[in-house]
Amino acid sequence: MPVIGLGTWKSPLGKTGAAVKVALESGYRCLDTANDYANEAEIGEALQDVFAKGDLKRSDIFIQSKLWNSNHRPEHVRADLEATLRDLQTDYVDSFVIHWPQVCTMFPIEADGKYSSDNESHYVDTWHAMEELVDAGLVRTIGLSNFNRRQVAEVQAAARKYQPTILQNECHPYLQNKDLIDFCQRTGVQFQSYSPLGSYDRPWAQPGEPELLEDPRLKEIGARHGNKTTAQVVLRWHIQRGTAACPKSVTPARIESNFQVFDFELTPEDMAVLSDMNMGWRHLLWDATAMHPDYPFKDDLPHDHVVPDAPMNTSHSSRN
Ligand SMILES: NC(=O)c1ccc[n+]([C@@H]2O[C@H](COP(=O)([O-])OP(=O)(O)OC[C@H]3O[C@@H](n4cnc5c(N)ncnc54)[C@H](OP(=O)(O)O)[C@@H]3O)[C@@H](O)[C@H]2O)c1
User: GO terms for CC (predicted)?
Assistant: First the structure.
């Protein structure tokens, strides 16, 4: 997969299509989408406009989408993908990943205020249904997202025909995931970092939380490399670690500059400074699903953590 892709979570309707067009004009050849983001139809329209101009064709672009949590039962997997294909106006996606290992429906919310979870279906059965999508020619590769190392290894052991090719998990200098990435590299899985810039627009941001792109250490490194932005420094770090990344932006100048990361190189000393920035800060815990047995980040929850109620005013697309 191309090392830099455009992220589209939280990209609002009315801006997503334009962002996709600017990205493709700027050189991006990879788009990260999901039916949960509720903007795939606008991406599909934008792609049709781009193809109509004749500069690019479908096979020039690597499109990744995701199987949503409520559709893990084997009989639901193909229908979930087909909705995505209809919205994106394409016959196939290049990568289709299981969005989260835990199965839950967002609505209805249970009487106790928690999400409904399906404890009888399991991601290994889902994986076998995903394998059939490859045979049907609807997806080129299949992969995982938000799985922890044990869960990835479990899928690898259970795979009948196709191994997971991609793992998309949160990763940035404040959450470096070194063990997980080493495991992926050793077992032939391409790691793709989500929230690679620290997800400034995350809906649950709290005052006083660290803001990666404001970090003075990144500013200092950028200044030494001819005024590179902190985002460019961070994206360069991802590339030099051998991981792919999908920064999100709907701001044309940022979309363009986030792709201008192939004309400079961080020194070993720069890489060491970035390496020291790790503090295990995970922004996307989604702890309202932590009651599910397959919830992946149990070890990251605080001691005595109490599962919060599902937020009643949360729309399907404002979480992921
Ligand atoms: N599998 C999953 O569960 C999962 C979870 C989270 C994310 N993802 C994927 O990963 C993508 C990226 O993650 P993310 O959206 O959480 O966060 P991100 O890419 O780390 O950060 C996005 C934020 O950074 C801003 N930004 C982008 N470029 C910038 C620059 N050069 N200078 C300053 N600010 C900049 C954006 O603002 P503007 O848009 O206003 O320019 C936006 O507020 C998502 O969009 C999605 O495709 C997947």
Answer: cytosol
Q: Is 99 annotated as belonging to a binding site?
A: yes
64 lines ligand 1 (CB under 6 A): no
CA of 7 to the centre of ligand 1 (A): 6
In this structure, are residues 26 and 54 in contact, taking their beta carbons and an 8 Å threshold? no
Ligand 1 centre distance from Cα of residue 111 (Å): 34
Tell me: pLDDT of 137 over 70. Answer: yes
Q: What is the pLDDT of residues 152-164, one digit of tens each?
A: 999 999 999 999 9
* Residues 6+ away with beta carbon under 8 Å from 216: none
Using an 8 Å Cβ cutoff, are 59 and 33 in contact?
A: no
Place of tokens 């620290």: 198
For each of the domains in the chain, give its residue range(s) and CATH number, in order of start.
6-200+208-309 (3.20.20.100)
Residue 143 token pair: 């992969």
Q: Which residues pair with 167 in a beta bridge?
A: 144, 191
Confirm or reject: Cβ of 250 under 6 Å from ligand 1. Answer: yes
Instruction: Give residue for tokens 């994986």.
Output: 127
Going from the Cα of 160 to the center of ligand 1, the distance in angstroms, rounded, reads 34
Q: Exposure string (b/e) for 281-291, b if CB count within 10 Å is 16 or more?
A: bbbbbbbbbbe
Q: How many CB atoms lie within 10 A of CB 155?
A: 23
308 has pLDDT over 50: yes
Residue 37 annotated in active site: yes
